[in-house]
Amino acid sequence: MIYFDHAATCPMSERALETMTALLREGYGNPSSPHRLGREAKNALEGARLDVAQLFDLSMKNVIFTGSGTEADNIAIMSAYKNRKKSPGHMVTTAMEHEAVLKCAEALEEKGVEVTYIAPNKNGVVSAEDVLAAVREDTFLVSVMAVNNEVGTVQPLKEISAGLDGGVHLHVDAVQAAGHRPMDTYAFAHTVAMSGHKFYGPKGVGILLTRKELEPVIYGGGQERGIRSGTENVPAICAMAEALKEAEAHREEDAAHMDELSRRLRGGLEEIQGVALTVPAADGRIVHAMVEGMERDVLLYQLDRRGFALSGGSACQAGAATESHVLRAMGVDQKNRAPMRLSLGRENTMDEVEAFLKALREILEGKRS
Predict the structure, then answer these.
(1) Nearest alpha carbon to residue 66 among 204, 175, 191, 180
(2) Which of 47, 155, 163, 178 could be stapled to 194 by a disulfide with Cβ–Cβ 3.0 to 4.6 Å?
(3) Half-sphere exposure (CA, 13 Å, Cβ side) for 244?
C-alpha cells in the first residue's frame, strides 16, 4: 500500500516505537507512586517534558501533556473562557478551523459568548486585517490554526499576533504544523496545541504549550499541574517527545524532499483532464484537488483497490455525507466533484507519485470511455 494520508496519521518512527515498546515492558510504574518503579516513570515523564520545553525554549511548567490535539484545543479555549474579564465575552476564530475548535466555539455560543467566524479568501487564507478588525473590547480569545488540515494553507499568525493587545488570548491549533514547519511560525502564541501522531509519534497523546495561566478543565488527582488530571501515559508521552525531537532535527531535509514531491504531484495533476487544484500553493505536505464527475467514496475506493491510501479531507469527517465546511468557506463548488487530499510523508518517493498519477489517469480515462 502506498500511503498518502499523513495528515490523518503518520506511521510511528522507529525511534518512537522503540522508546514506547521499552517503556511498556519495563517502565510501567505509575509516575505518581513513591516507590522505585514510580520514580523511574516520573523521571522518564519529566525527561520528556524537559525535551519538549527545550525545543521551544520554554520552562517545563509551560508544557502540558494531553490525550490528543483535540483535548489540547479544548483545554486552551475553555480555560480562556474561564479567565475572561468581561461576561459573556467575545471570541474570534475562522470558518475553516478543525472541529476541535469549531465545536468549542459552538458550545461557548450556547453559554452566551458571541463568536465571529472569519471567512478565508478563495485560496484558503484568512486576512490578518479581517481577524484584527473583528477584535472588540470584550474579546477574550482569538483562535487561528497554523496549517489547515484539509487544503494545507498557512495562516498569517505573525501578523495577527503583532496586532493583538496582550490581554487577548491567542490560541493556535498547530496540529498540522508541529514537527513540519519552523517553530517561529506558530510557537509564539499564548497556547499551542499539538498531536503526537501527526509527526510520527503514537496516537492518543498530545501537547499543550502555554504562556498563560490556565484553569483546570479535567479534575482529579492533580496531574499536569492540575490542569489536566489523570494518570499520564508515560510510554506514549516519551515516544511522542522522541518523535518530535527527530522531526525537528530532520525538518528542513524532510521539507525539501516533500516540496520536490509536491511540485511534481501538483504539476502532474494539472495535466490530467477533469482535475483541478483547490489552491495554487500551500504547505508542501498537503495537495488538495477536485475531480470532476466523480463521487468521493467511489474515487477513493478505486484508488484503494489500486493500492493507494489517501482521503477526501479531514479524517474526523471521513464517511460523512455533508460537504466540507472548509471548502464551503472558501467558496469551492462541491457539486458533482470529488475532493481528494494527498498528504505526503518523509518515506514517500518520486516513483510512488508517478505511480499515483498513472493510476488516477487510468481511473478517469476508464470512466470517460
Answers:
(1) 204
(2) 178
(3) 28
pLDDT, block means (10 residues), the chain with 369 residues: 98 98 96 96 98 98 98 97 94 98 98 98 97 97 98 97 94 98 96 98 98 92 96 98 98 96 96 95 89 94 97 67 89 95 97 98 84
> How many angstroms separate the CA atoms of 262 and 264, rounded?
5
**Under 8 Å between Cβ of 190 and 209:** no
Q: Which of 10, 104, 238, 316 is catalytic?
A: 316
Q: Using CA atoms, how far apart are residues 205 and 171, in angstroms rounded to an integer?
A: 19
Q: Is 201 helix (H, G, I), strand (E, B) or coil?
A: coil
The whole-number pLDDT of residue 317 equals 53
pLDDT of residue 281: 76
Q: What are phi and psi of 145, to 5 degrees?
A: -75, 155
88 Cβ contact list (under 8 Å, min separation 6): 111, 112, 113, 114
**pTM (2 d.p.):** 0.96
Is 104 noted as a catalytic residue in this protein? no
Q: What is the pLDDT of residue 369?
A: 60
CA dist., res. 367 & res. 358, Å (int): 14
Q: Supply the pLDDT for residue 316.
A: 58
As a 3-state breakdown, the chain gives helix, strand, coil percent values, each rounded to 5, of 45, 15, 40
CA–CA separation, 103 vs 234, rounded Å? 29
Torsion of CA 123, 248, 354, 4, to 10 degrees: -70
